[in-house]
Amino acid sequence: MQSSVGTTSMGTAIVDLAAITHNLRVVTDVAGVGALAVVKANGYGHGALPVARALVEAGVVGLGVSQVAEALALREGGITAPVTAWLHVPDTDFEAAIAGGVDIAVSSPRQLDAVVDAAARRGEPATLTVKVDTGMNRSGVGWAEWEVFIEAFARAHAAGAVALRGVMAHLACSDEPDHPANDAQAAGLRAAVADLAAVGGVPELVHLANSPAALTRPDLAFDAVRPGVALYGLNPVPNHSDAPLIPAMTLRSEVSLVKRVAAGGGVSYGLTYVAPADTVVGIVPVGYADGVPRALSGKLRVRINGRDFPGIGRMCMDQFVVDLGPDGGGVTEGDEVELFGTGADDAPTAGEWAEMSDTIDYEIITGIGGRIARRYVGGQS
Ligand SMILES: Cc1ncc(COP(=O)(O)O)c(C=O)c1O
How many Cβ atoms sit within 10 Å of the Cβ of residue 358? Predict the structure, then answer.
């Protein structure tokens, strides 16, 4: 287990940076262009900074995050590569973003105005990406405001207040590669690029494709793809792509306690599991506060010493119980517990957890909590 002064983590996410750079190569080979690699949400739970360092070293075109604060944290960590941030509230500190050389992706004329004001206060141009809403009706400049936006952009660009780095849009249905919305959204992006060019805004980089599109629609790759989850080794379109991705995160804990439970004994909150016979149980000291979904109560399996053991009773905030069988399965306190990982030898995966808890594996990996230590292998970070 990973320890630091006075503390011992009850769980560790082993993050394989070599798997991440392998996945980057897989995605960019399929797409045929470079990647603006998405490291938002703490690098999908893997640790934004070490992941970003590995990706930059591997030659990404840039990095993508949601929030300016995430971008600035990368800068504080020494990342000098281009970083794009695309989700803002009205009081976002765009001056700090400009000072940090962050590429600010704007979603409305109001955001553009705020960026232009911040650039004026700082006395230097802002690096800008235009995020266009080409049909998802989420973030991005919508068509209803497009004309006003183009006029404001033309003024800002002519005044030298902004330098256009990118134009981007986001696909609503990319996990269905043949969905007509994908082509319609791509056409919208092309039209937006043409409108910007007509007022002098020629971007360095046009990007649309998230992981599902990067893996299945190289015709929509534009200048760069913008993958997130695939870099972490999870395939969002297993029915459409057999790209050889390697899951980068393995979640481990250790058995904190082994004890006997007599036949008829109830286990965990509500005593919902009742031991049908005398048995031995092990306590695993991670729970829903660490990102193990409560919906996995009585469903998950864990791997200890190469064998699978079932979780029993309700998942708790900090711990859960596994049934080691009447002879205790040879398990002793301190033995390593693998909760999910690469799936080698049919071991549990984040995908299996997602299926059992009626969610997507994105939510599993991004949900791994702050009490879980991150340990990096396969790279220099
Ligand atoms: C704008 C944008 N681009 C790219 C991504 C990466 O998506 P994915 O993890 O499916 O590759 C996201 C993530 O949700 C996003 O919000």
Answer: 8
